[in-house]
Amino acid sequence: MACAALRACFKHPETCILTTFADLGLSPELLKAVDAAGYTEPTPIQAEAIPATLMMKDLIGIAQTGTGKTASFVLPMIDVLASGRRRALMPRSLILEPTRELAAQVAENFEKYGKNHDLKMALLIGGVQMGDQVKALNEGVDVLIATPGRLMDLFERGKILLNGCDLLVIDEADRMLDMGFIPDIEFICEKLPEQRQTLLFSATMPPPIEKLAKKFLDNPKRIEVSRRASTNENITAFKIPVKSREKRSTLRWLLNNDLVETAIIFANRKTTVRELNKSLQRHGFSSGEIHGDIDQASRNKELQRFKDGEINILVASDVAARGLDIKGVSHVFNFDTPWHPDDYVHRIGRTGRAGNKGRAFTFVAPEDGEAIENVEKLTGSAINIFGKDDVRVDLPKAAQKKASAPQKKSVPEQDDSDSEPDEKPKRGGRRKSAEAPAEERKPARSSRNADRGSDDRKADSRGRSRRREPEDDPVPAGEWNGPQPGFLNVGFD
Ligand code: AMP
């Protein structure tokens, strides 16, 4: 363990503290839960935040998801709350999260780490029946995990009193800012006792968050575990200059040829999420979607299908996918460059988690030009352009193979058009050879889907069905047997 800790120090000399969980002052019950979770050593933010929180200090943690920041506040909170009594309607601590998914994730963390403690927790999130939440509050809770909207709602109805709450966590503060929650947070802070402990976590510290911290935190310890808005070193990131109309075919090519196991694909608009998911399904990919227009129960169901491997591609909007902690996501695709550069860091942070390697691709169409400039300004470096050296299949060999391989049948044009669904497909027209759809070969996708019979019929949104031809069978991951797509030439000699 000492060697691993030393390695961590070399990697993060700025936060190097040779330490183990036992050194941090956590109780034996908590150490047992940490051990059961399989953690052998604290992450840099945990090494710094846990002792400070146990000493009741205010804290600013500048850390992105994937750094272990949730445990950095959940673990010490459990010990802090272990002594003391619950009272009806008066939660003893409050954690504010920007989205329901994040709130649910933090609740899961409490369950995991708090299993050896007698603590009561309530989750106050929108999209869920209020009755059970109010009942839990009536019985008294130690930890209340809430999204600002639902909390304000209950507070205004007099169903909750905040004056017994002397530990506040504001998580993902920069996201709260993006979502317009800062006035709500200020309101909530004013209702809490003045003498309290406040922990604020944020991936970036834009001026309004600095201002919020100055107003509501008392002499906070500041912990920054990585460069401002920096991205994780386990993630290999590329940008791909692409025409808007070629985004879908480019995506399919990559899904088929970049050894994709599981992928989250982000789009800026809900309509794009919906349409892209339909298009991927039409092409035989095993995909699902989450975005803000989908009710909470269906979002949870879709997430569970993704976590269980029932689908291996999730098309998502920023709000729905914010902070999701899903193990082993091999790829993130930004179908659109995000409008807010902070979202770039959050999006690609869904891969390369917990020490795993991940790949992130950002599509840059002419209309994404300004957005990518802002991303690169924020991360402080230019993102590499994806090119021949980065391709994960053997292109020359694939080309030879193709020359000797029988010609594949073209897939009906209407199914793979990059055009929006309301644009009419060109009947009987063939694609330009440069964009010929190598990706129409079926993908390396979850085995359940790949196992479907070759005569499986699929209906598209216009009610047509197409027979799955034998040539549609999945190509083993990494085998590339189509022409070289045009986008690989962009930016290369
Ligand atoms: P977070 O940054 O809170 O989203 O956590 C990212 C992931 O790291 C989660 O899956 C945690 O279970 C995991 N994790 C947290 N702390 C540790 C640790 N000390 N060692 C290994 N994994 C951890």
From TrEMBL:
Domain Helicase C-terminal: 254-399
GO BP: response to temperature stimulus; ribosome assembly
Residues in DEAD-box RNA helicase Q domain copies: 19-47
EC number(s) reported in the record: 3.6.4.13
Signal sequence annotation: none
GO molecular function (one): RNA helicase activity
Domain Helicase ATP-binding: 50-223
Bias (Low complexity): 398-409
Cross-referenced Pfam families: DEAD (PF00270), Helicase_C (PF00271)
Catalytic reaction annotation: ATP + H2O = ADP + phosphate + H(+)
Motif (Q motif): 19-47
Swiss-Prot/TrEMBL keywords: ATP-binding, Cytoplasm, Helicase, Hydrolase, Nucleotide-binding
Cross-referenced PANTHER family: ATP-DEPENDENT RNA HELICASE RHLE (PTHR47959:SF13), ATP-DEPENDENT RNA HELICASE RHLE-RELATED (PTHR47959)
Protein family (similarity comment): Belongs to the DEAD box helicase family.
Protein name per its UniProtKB record: DEAD-box ATP-dependent RNA helicase RhpA
Species of provenance: Aurantiacibacter aquimixticola
